[in-house]
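User: quick one, fold this
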Amino acid sequence: MEQVLTFFNDNREMIYFIILSVFVGVEVIGGVPTVLHTPLMSGANAIHGVVIVGAIYVMLNVNPTDTVALILGCLAVLLGTLNVVGGFVVTDRMLEMFKKKK
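Assistant:
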């Protein structure tokens, strides 16, 4: 129990920042009209490129003999890439709906 309290005391600012981010995110997403929700979410998926960069950075600092960490890192890069590509595909399909037909 003392380790948990020490962790919270050492990382208090980070914990406050995360809690504030959650509240701001809920308010921002909750205020979006239904018509704009799908393009907003597809754009948010594209922002997940940060996950790819973070996974690559973590994999560079992992011990090469730690196969579990390497497998999880590769899985994170794969899923992050799928999320980014999916975000762009959804955005492209949404934009195609608004183009004039010939």
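User: anything notable?
Assistant: The longest helix spans residues 67-97.
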